[in-house]
Amino acid sequence: MSTILAYTSPALGHMLPMSALLLELAHRGHRIWLRTYSECVDMGQRFGFDADAIDPRIETITLDDWRTTDPRRALTLGVTALARRAEHEVADLAEAVAVVRPDALLIDVNCWGARSAAEAGEVPWACFSPYTPPLESPGVPPFGLGLRPMGGVAGRIRDAVARLVVTRSFEKVMLPPVNAVRAGVGRAPVASVDEYLRRAPLMLVATGKPFQYPQTDWGETVHMIGPCALDPGPQTVPDWIAAVDRPIVLVTTSSERQDDGVLVRTAVAALADEPVHVVATSPAGHAEDFAVPDNATVRGRVPHGAILDRAVCAVTHGGMGATQKALLRAMPVCAVPFGRDQFEVARRVEVAGCGTRLPAKRLSRERLKAKVSEAMTMTDGAKRVADGFAATGGAAHGADLFEQRVVGG
Hints:
It is a single chain. By secondary structure, the chain is of the alpha/beta class. The chain has two domains: 240 residues, Rossmann fold; 152 residues, Glycogen Phosphorylase B (Rossmann fold). 44% of the residues lie in helices and 14% in strands. It starts with a strand and ends with a helix.
């Protein structure tokens, strides 16, 4: 069997879904070497992988897009951070390859430097994306603002304008440093984000239809394989969850720093008089102290599996991982996006009919209570999405593709 070197960005929300695929490959006899966020090294080793940390300089470059409420400015800040990380990833991946001597590489979509180095190298490779990639597809609005698909001439005009205003603005920030990295490894420059992402011989995307828009078509090298959800927590139900005697509403915020702590406070207050128990998690540790009613529990980083098994609805920040993990269980979602790809996730929840969408700038107790109540009536839509996810084949399908097109290639 082959040795596979997996390289991730410093984000738990990327490491975990990639690890679901890696576990499937490990079960098939492949040796997995994971180079990841330092805080995740022990977790990777518990999964049975060889694991070590990425260059610490990469981890010091944090996403500070939460400092602004302007979506375009936030995209620019996020792109700038990823571009700065790319400068260190080339040498870091080269060191890992020299030590591991892998037969194949699996590279996180956000690791722009590692992707360019893999493209320039001789080891077969594929890309893994835990979120909807900003690839162009006929009839799908440009990525970033969470625009609703619109047909006809009006839709094409709107999308063309949005592409000029949004896509081109962050490409001006992204492409110069990316092309500088590419030049350093002997690769030709790219003219767009779409062209750059399509340099991967194979991209595995952790999602599926009908959560993705029906018209989405990214071509032969890009494959949806389902959410690849992985819950690293204990298999037994914690006593504090078992003691809850009401239906649970899970409230989640981002695992990376973001100004979304207000979602926890608002949800707890909005549902204080409802016949439910709110379990709110704040894994980035930024929720402020506040009075918590009897029908609520507020925790930090808690595995969601045992909670979701008891839940009737999930209120998410629009993160792809938490949102799809709920939908896998046919559980409707109320998505409150704050930034990053969350606008796109929330819009897909709305369009797929598997839940509701409430922009963070309109967040209030009354509106959130109404949106949660509406979401709870949308179990049929959530079931339809869950069935679609199951039909993708999941991590097993992803492993098949990786073996056929990368390891076997």
